[in-house]
Specification:
There is one protein chain. This protein is mostly helical and 148 residues long. It is built from 8 helices and no strands. It has one domain: Orthogonal Bundle (TerB-like). Helix content is 76%, strand content 0%. Helix 6 (93-107) packs antiparallel against helix 7 and helix 6 packs across helix 8. It comes from Palleronia sediminis.
């Protein structure tokens, strides 16, 4: 199953990802970001679950199942460059900005910007085709949303 998903994610030419694949791809990318510092905290896991609950209308059990599957995919996924390129080619720009916002929400969950997570996000944003200005605005929106 994971091999089939990864094949669909990286095959050429890219086509729009089916909804379940898009969900899994985003969640796996969030897991990869959370693991960038070699620590996947309960706080990060909860934030990812909250993101997928809100974004996809899942209940807690559905969100947990998606995160567990995403963890397995993330372990087996190719390098981040090919992974994000597939998402970029399959997802509209506005939705990619939403992906960046979700990523910033994971990075900032503990109140500070971890160097490894920050570096990965800064690498991924242009790979997703999101410019620095829009990534910065996404970060500010996330900071404003979670600071109140």
């Amino acid at each position: 199953m994971i091999a089939d998903f990864l094949r669909r994610l990286t095959e050429s030419p890219p086509e729009a990802l089916p909804d379940p694949d898009a969900r899994l791809a985003l969640t796996a990318l969030l897991v990869r970001l959370a693991r960038a510092d070699n620590v996947f905290t309960a706080q990060e896991r909860t934030r990812i679950q909250n993101i997928v609950c809100e974004r996809y209308g899942l209940d807690r059990a559905g969100a947990e199942a998606l995160v567990v599957e995403a963890e397995a995919v993330e372990r087996e996924a190719p390098d981040t460059v090919r992974f994000t390129r597939a998402i970029k080619d399959a997802v509209d720009y506005d939705d990619r900005i939403g992906v960046i916002e979700a990523m910033w929400a994971v990075v900032l969950v503990d109140g500070h910007r971890d160097d490894e997570e920050d570096a990965l996000l800064r690498m991924v944003a242009p790979l997703l085709g999101v410019n620095d200005r829009d990534s910065n605005l996404a970060r500010r929106r996330v900071e404003a949303r979670f600071s109140t």
